[in-house]
Design a protein that fits this description.
- The protein is mainly α.
- The radius of gyration is 15 Å and the shape is globular.
- It has one domain: Up-down Bundle (AhpD-like), CATH 1.20.1290.
Length: about 150
Protein backbone atom coordinates (compact mmCIF):
# COMPACT_ATOMS: atom_id res chain seq x y z
CA UNK A 1 0.00 0.00 0.00
CA UNK A 2 1.44 3.31 -1.09
CA UNK A 3 1.76 5.81 1.76
CA UNK A 4 3.46 8.56 -0.21
CA UNK A 5 3.41 8.37 -3.98
CA UNK A 6 6.13 9.70 -6.23
CA UNK A 7 4.17 12.85 -7.14
CA UNK A 8 3.80 13.73 -3.45
CA UNK A 9 7.53 13.67 -2.68
CA UNK A 10 9.31 16.97 -2.05
CA UNK A 11 10.95 18.21 -5.24
CA UNK A 12 14.55 17.04 -5.48
CA UNK A 13 14.28 14.47 -2.68
CA UNK A 14 15.82 11.71 -4.81
CA UNK A 15 18.30 13.97 -6.67
CA UNK A 16 21.31 13.30 -4.41
CA UNK A 17 20.57 9.56 -4.37
CA UNK A 18 20.34 9.46 -8.16
CA UNK A 19 23.65 11.33 -8.40
CA UNK A 20 25.23 8.59 -6.29
CA UNK A 21 23.66 5.97 -8.58
CA UNK A 22 25.11 7.75 -11.63
CA UNK A 23 28.51 7.86 -9.93
CA UNK A 24 28.39 4.14 -9.17
CA UNK A 25 27.21 3.33 -12.69
CA UNK A 26 30.33 5.03 -14.09
CA UNK A 27 32.64 3.29 -11.62
CA UNK A 28 34.90 0.33 -12.21
CA UNK A 29 32.64 -2.06 -10.28
CA UNK A 30 30.98 -4.78 -12.32
CA UNK A 31 27.32 -3.97 -13.00
CA UNK A 32 26.10 -7.52 -12.39
CA UNK A 33 27.98 -7.72 -9.11
CA UNK A 34 26.39 -4.47 -7.94
CA UNK A 35 22.95 -5.73 -8.97
CA UNK A 36 23.48 -9.07 -7.20
CA UNK A 37 24.37 -7.15 -4.05
CA UNK A 38 21.33 -4.89 -4.44
CA UNK A 39 19.07 -7.90 -4.88
CA UNK A 40 20.51 -9.73 -1.86
CA UNK A 41 20.34 -6.71 0.43
CA UNK A 42 16.78 -6.06 -0.72
CA UNK A 43 15.92 -9.65 0.23
CA UNK A 44 17.41 -9.15 3.68
CA UNK A 45 15.44 -5.93 4.13
CA UNK A 46 12.24 -7.34 2.64
CA UNK A 47 11.86 -4.53 0.11
CA UNK A 48 9.45 -5.75 -2.58
CA UNK A 49 9.86 -2.67 -4.78
CA UNK A 50 13.65 -3.03 -4.87
CA UNK A 51 13.45 -6.81 -5.37
CA UNK A 52 11.33 -6.22 -8.47
CA UNK A 53 13.71 -3.56 -9.74
CA UNK A 54 16.96 -5.44 -9.26
CA UNK A 55 15.57 -8.73 -10.56
CA UNK A 56 14.61 -6.88 -13.76
CA UNK A 57 17.98 -5.12 -13.94
CA UNK A 58 19.83 -8.42 -13.56
CA UNK A 59 17.75 -10.04 -16.31
CA UNK A 60 18.37 -7.00 -18.53
CA UNK A 61 22.12 -7.38 -18.00
CA UNK A 62 22.06 -11.07 -18.88
CA UNK A 63 22.15 -12.71 -15.46
CA UNK A 64 20.87 -16.29 -15.41
CA UNK A 65 17.64 -17.38 -13.72
CA UNK A 66 19.61 -20.00 -11.81
CA UNK A 67 21.97 -17.52 -10.16
CA UNK A 68 19.14 -15.11 -9.42
CA UNK A 69 17.11 -17.87 -7.76
CA UNK A 70 20.12 -19.05 -5.74
CA UNK A 71 21.20 -15.64 -4.43
CA UNK A 72 19.47 -16.17 -1.09
CA UNK A 73 21.55 -19.34 -0.59
CA UNK A 74 24.77 -18.10 -2.17
CA UNK A 75 26.91 -19.67 0.58
CA UNK A 76 25.60 -23.14 -0.25
CA UNK A 77 26.31 -23.18 -3.97
CA UNK A 78 29.24 -23.09 -6.33
CA UNK A 79 27.38 -20.84 -8.78
CA UNK A 80 29.09 -17.76 -7.35
CA UNK A 81 32.84 -17.22 -7.52
CA UNK A 82 35.01 -16.36 -4.52
CA UNK A 83 34.99 -12.64 -5.28
CA UNK A 84 31.19 -12.56 -5.51
CA UNK A 85 30.89 -14.58 -2.30
CA UNK A 86 33.21 -12.19 -0.48
CA UNK A 87 31.17 -9.22 -1.71
CA UNK A 88 27.88 -10.85 -0.71
CA UNK A 89 29.25 -11.72 2.74
CA UNK A 90 30.42 -8.12 3.16
CA UNK A 91 27.03 -6.80 1.99
CA UNK A 92 25.22 -8.95 4.53
CA UNK A 93 27.57 -7.89 7.33
CA UNK A 94 27.12 -4.17 6.57
CA UNK A 95 23.37 -4.57 6.25
CA UNK A 96 23.07 -6.42 9.56
CA UNK A 97 25.63 -4.28 11.40
CA UNK A 98 23.31 -3.28 14.30
CA UNK A 99 25.43 -2.48 17.37
CA UNK A 100 28.40 -4.64 16.42
CA UNK A 101 31.54 -3.42 14.70
CA UNK A 102 32.42 -4.90 11.34
CA UNK A 103 34.79 -7.77 12.08
CA UNK A 104 38.34 -7.77 10.84
CA UNK A 105 37.75 -11.25 9.44
CA UNK A 106 34.91 -9.97 7.25
CA UNK A 107 36.88 -6.95 6.13
CA UNK A 108 40.01 -8.97 5.41
CA UNK A 109 38.08 -11.53 3.39
CA UNK A 110 36.61 -8.87 1.09
CA UNK A 111 39.85 -6.88 0.98
CA UNK A 112 41.64 -9.89 -0.51
CA UNK A 113 39.40 -9.60 -3.62
CA UNK A 114 39.03 -5.83 -4.03
CA UNK A 115 41.49 -2.95 -4.06
CA UNK A 116 40.85 0.07 -1.82
CA UNK A 117 38.98 1.99 -4.53
CA UNK A 118 36.75 -0.98 -5.34
CA UNK A 119 36.16 -1.59 -1.64
CA UNK A 120 35.06 2.02 -1.14
CA UNK A 121 32.70 1.72 -4.14
CA UNK A 122 31.38 -1.61 -2.89
CA UNK A 123 30.70 -0.07 0.53
CA UNK A 124 28.85 2.82 -1.10
CA UNK A 125 26.78 0.40 -3.20
CA UNK A 126 25.75 -1.50 -0.07
CA UNK A 127 24.89 1.56 2.00
CA UNK A 128 23.04 3.10 -0.94
CA UNK A 129 20.73 0.12 -1.46
CA UNK A 130 20.04 0.04 2.27
CA UNK A 131 18.94 3.69 2.01
CA UNK A 132 16.72 2.98 -1.00
CA UNK A 133 15.19 -0.07 0.75
CA UNK A 134 14.26 1.96 3.78
CA UNK A 135 12.75 4.79 1.75
CA UNK A 136 10.71 2.45 -0.46
CA UNK A 137 9.40 0.59 2.60
CA UNK A 138 8.59 3.87 4.40
CA UNK A 139 6.76 5.32 1.39
CA UNK A 140 5.13 2.00 0.46
CA UNK A 141 6.09 2.14 -3.21
CA UNK A 142 4.29 -0.66 -5.07
CA UNK A 143 6.34 -3.49 -6.57
CA UNK A 144 5.83 -4.56 -10.16
CA UNK A 145 5.82 -1.21 -11.92
CA UNK A 146 9.56 -0.77 -12.46
CA UNK A 147 10.67 -0.63 -16.08
CA UNK A 148 14.35 -0.99 -17.03
CA UNK A 149 15.58 1.99 -19.02
CA UNK A 150 17.63 1.25 -22.13
Amino acid sequence: MERINYAELPEGLFTPLREIEDYLKKSELDTNLMELIRLRVSQLNGCAYCLDMHYKELKHHGETDLRISLISAWEETDHFNDKEKAALHYAEALTRIDHHPLSETTFNSVESHFNKTELALLSLTITQINTWNRLMKAFGFVAGNYVVSS
